C-alpha cells in the first residue's frame, strides 16, 4: 500500500473540495497518484449525481453581470446546503456559469445549460462540479434585462453567505445613485411588474372578483361597492407594480415620482431570491 501523507490528502481536498475519508480512500486506491485519485473521485461523484436527482436545493446564490451589449444577465445557482453555497468552488462555478450563459446570449435555463463552457457545456460543467461537491447543483433561473444603463444590486442576507437576493434594473438617464436606490427598493418591496398596465388582465379580474366578494361579505353598501373595489384594486397595484409603489426611502412619494424627478426611465427589471 502506498504511503499516503496528510499533505497529499490536504492538497487534494483543497483542489476538489471532497471529504477527508473519500479523499484518503481514493488516494489509497490510486496508489498515491494524485491524477488517478482525482479521476476516481470524479467518477464516484458522477454516480452520486443520479442518486441526488430528487433532493431539494433550497440554498445557493444569485450572480449578475452587465454584458456590454445593452443587456445584463442574472442567474440563480442552487445547491442543497449553505456549507456548499459559501464555498469558493461553488462561487467560482456560479461565475463560470454566468459568463458562459451571458456569452451565449442565453435567455432561458435550457439555452444556458446548452451553452459552451470551454470544452464542455454548462450542463456538463455543473454536473462535473456537483460530483465533486457531493451535492445536487442546478441552474434554477436566468433573466436577461435590456437597457441603456444598469443598476445591479446583490444583497447578502447573512455576512457568511454569498448574495441571496439579486436585482438588475435597466434604465435610461444619468442618475446612477438613484437607479441603485431603486434596485435596493425592488429587493425589499418585490414588485412583479413595472406598471399596472403590465399586469395581465386575467390577474386583475381575479383580484377584482376577490375584493368584491370580500367587500360584499363585509356588508358594504351596494352603492359604495364600485368605489371600494377600485380602492382595493389600487392597493393591489401598489403591491405588484413598481411604479405604483411607495418609495422605500420616502413613503410620501411613489417610485414613478422618484423616477420623474431624477430624469430616469426604467426599461425593465428582474429580481431573484434564493429558494423563492
- Widest beta sheet: strand line-up: 1-2-5
Order of helices and strands: HHHEEHHHEEHEEEHHHEEHE
**What's the shape?**
elongated
Poorly predicted tracts of residues: none
Class from helix and strand fractions: alpha+beta
How many strands appear in the DSSP assignment?
A: 10
Distance between the termini: 50 Å
Please state roughly what percent of the residues sit in beta strands, choosing from under 5%, 5-15%, 15-25%, 25-35%, 35-45% or over 45%. 15-25%
Helical residue percent?
40-55%
Mean pLDDT: 89
Rg: 24 Å
Question: How many H/I helical runs?
Answer: 11
The largest β sheet comes out as: 3 strands, antiparallel
What does this structure look like?
- This protein is of the alpha+beta class.
- The strands form 4 sheets. It has a 3-stranded antiparallel β-sheet.
- A hairpin with a 2-residue loop joins strand 8 and strand 9.
- Helix 2 crosses helix 3, helix 3 crosses helix 7 and helix 5 packs antiparallel against helix 7.
- It is elongated.
- The termini are far apart.
- The relative contact order is 0.12.
Provide a concise account of the structure shown:
The chain is an alpha+beta fold.
Strands, helices and their partners?
Blueprint: H1 6-16, H2 20-29, H3 34-51, E1 59-66, E2 71-79, H4 82-85, H5 88-104, H6 109-114, E3 116-117, E4 120-121, H7 122-133, E5 138-146, E6 149-155, E7 165-172, H8 176-189, H9 201-217, H10 225-240, E8 246-247, E9 250-254, H11 255-262, E10 265-273
Antiparallel strand pairs: 1-2, 2-5, 3-4, 6-7, 7-10, 8-9
Helix pairs in contact: 1-2, 2-3, 3-7, 5-7, 9-10
